[in-house]
Amino acid sequence: MRVAGIMGALVVGGLNVASSQVVISNSTEPTVYAYCQKFQTLYTQIREQRIPPDSARLQFSSIMYGLQQRFRSNESYQQDSIQRDSLRRTGRYFVFPLRGYTASSIGGTHGEGYRSVGFDLFDYNVRGSHPAQDIFISDRNQDNIDDRTGGPVDILAMTSGVVVGIETAWKPGSEYRGGNWIWVYDPMLHGLFYYAHNSQVDVTPGQWVQAGQKLAEMGRTGYNAYKARSPTHLHLMYLQIKPDGLPQPINTYEWLLTARLSK
Ligand SMILES: [Zn+2]
């Protein structure tokens, strides 16, 4: 539990919040880190179909409500939020999630790879939708190494937020589609970013990440992404949390077009 306490403090510290203030005013409520642990457990249960979709929905909305409350409870943070909100309107809020790449690497010609119809986060059996953008690298021999640079490609956080879940143990042969994935909750947007198919994950649940910070290295993990017919790519999804606490996919294409690039 000592570790959990430290992680919680680190998360709060990343927001420049006086940690003593948070601890005193909300000592009976779960920490941000506790919500991250709940999210990690829930998403794993959904994937393994160990929880009925209706129960998963209830738990998800309760976790999202809890996270929202934890991040809302500080005035200095709200001022920060207003500043970043104006940044977002100018299109500079987002960082392009591949280092060294631009919007021309997004699949399709106008981001039409996005198909949200039929998406259900809580029922792993539902297939056919693709509420995401795939962003490709040059990797003809499919070894996860960028043919242009001779090195791996860094996956960067599109916005600042707290890592709420990761998978690091995907193995070839596994039917799980996301491979080694990362979920990041952005309290400013009150939404979740999902970065899938990574070869290596460099963050842990409870960790605060800044926009542009390295999260992972691109890979080919995941049931379909591992197959030879699939070019090496990042699968990027954003879920807006609605007032009822449930997720709604939003197309990130416009954000990607105006995102800041990292060399
Ligand atoms: Zn995809």
TrEMBL record:
Gene3D superfamilies with a match to the protein in the record: Glucose Permease (Domain IIA)
Keyword Methyltransferase: no
Root EC class: hydrolase
Protein name: M23 family metallopeptidase
InterPro entries: Cell_wall_metabolism_enzyme, Dup_hybrid_motif, M23ase_b-sheet_dom
GO terms of molecular function: hydrolase activity
EC number(s) per entry: 3.4.24.-
UniProt superkingdom: Bacteria
Keyword field: Hydrolase
Keyword Acyltransferase appears in the UniProt entry: no
Signal peptide coordinates: none
Ranges of residues in domain M23ase beta-sheet core: 154-237
